[in-house]
Design goal:
By secondary structure, the chain is α+β, with helices and mostly antiparallel strands. It has four domains: 2-96, Rossmann fold (3-Layer(aba) Sandwich), CATH 3.40.50.20; 121-190, Dna Ligase, domain 1, CATH 3.30.1490.20; 195-330 and 427-439, D-amino Acid Aminotransferase, Chain A, domain 1 (2-Layer Sandwich), CATH 3.30.470; 333-425, Phosphoribosylglycinamide synthetase, C-terminal domain (Glycinamide Ribonucleotide Synthetase, Chain A, domain 4), CATH 3.90.600.10. The chain has helices at 10-21, 35-40, 52-61, 72-76, 79-85, 99-102, 104-113, 128-138, 165-177, 247-266, 299-304, 311-320, 357-363, 397-408, 425-439; strands at 2-6, 25-30, 43-46, 66-69, 90-91, 122-125, 142-146, 156-157, 186-190, 195-204, 207-210, 215-216, 219-221, 225-228, 233-236, 272-282, 285-292, 332-340, 352-355, 366-369, 372-374, 380-382, 388-394, 411-414, 416-418. The longest helix has 20 residues, at 247-266. The relative contact order is 0.13. This is phosphoribosylamine--glycine ligase. Belongs to the GARS family. Keywords: ATP-binding, Ligase, Nucleotide-binding, Purine biosynthesis.
Length: 440
Amino acid sequence: MKVLVVGGGAREHIMAEVAVRDGAELFIALNNKNPGLLGLSSDSLFCKDMDPTAISNWAHEKNIDLALIGPESALASGIVDNLNNLDIPAMGPTKSASRIEVDKEFMRDLSSEFSFPGQLDYKVCSTVEEARHFLESFGKDCAIKPIGLTGGKGVKVMGDQLHSIDEAVNFCEEIIDTQMSGYAKVVLEERAIGEEFTLQAFISGETVIPMPAAQDHPHALEGDIGAITGGMGSYSQADGLLPFLSQSEYDSALETIRATAAAMNSINSPYRGILYGQFILTSDGPRLVEYNARFGDPEAMNVLSVLNSNFLDVSMDIAQGNLKPVDFEPKATVCKYIVPEGYGTTPRSDCSLSVDSTLLSSSGARVYYAAVNLEENNQISTTTSRSAAVVGKGDSIESAEKVTEAGLKAVSGTGLYVRHDIATEASISKRVSHMENLRS
């Protein structure tokens, strides 16, 4: 089967690796020279602006049987619609269905109209005065977000990055005046207190197959401080839950995802693809923070590392509306990202990295390349975004974390940074204690 993977990051690298494992002849469309993807592929299209028409036409020329779409920007541009118009099945939502991520106002209004479980109070404002009035009268801290896509880095939270109503209003003004993410509007959402977690699902219409839960670490620095980033790493547990997340709480989050799939069907915008639910577990149960219309990055590394089912069969079933049960290996996983120093604020752009393949192999870990480029001299240069993800598996989170740390020793370079505290015993104990205190 000829399979196209669209995107050039670590998420797409593992998607491609699993596709090849399951029998794909791989083709890739990307805007960076990712050595992992290039090493797996039969042919590649370098497309700097990731134009959906150019990629779809190239896929048609190559007689692609199935397309797997990685990044949200490609989904938002309507690449799935273009591919479908050329009779190429694609695993990913249409432009209309991807609004669940692309347009936060649409998502919140949908959740309100269909009474999703786990809603948060919210307000969409188009003027600074309206935002100030809501913030002063609401009486609670809020998360402040642009409407559209910002790569996971456009959110600021009162009591975290924002320390007064004036600071919050100033950020609202910045979002509205600059039309951040393409909209002159801002979303103000009730700040929920608890532990964030991710629940992803394969969806085809109203058929929902959930994946193991994971917990991302968006803060740039150890101790969960610093700028909000696209994600510094994540972990999952062998039983699909998390140390602080019970089966009933998992099921409550899944109920929200099922309600969302049903709602999308009801508005004649059936969802086919991956739905990523970001939740925060509070003393009253899970609350829906936001949706992504694709695999999370880093959480794709957690779930695809333990996918037993044939990824090509699952993806084709989604595209054709015939999704069947999916099997996962009962293993824990830990992913830690290697990033340039200063990532999240003022990242370096002059770093390099190399991987000792012998040492990596002996560690049992895997490396997935992200926003890097393979140069003509076969050296790997970094950009200002994340560089590579190191992933370990084990019977427990503790053992998986040790594998990941051993794998990190196989990667060397200049000006690189890792959050080594992710998935450590101390970090997880802190999260468990936090939820125990909230519940009591």
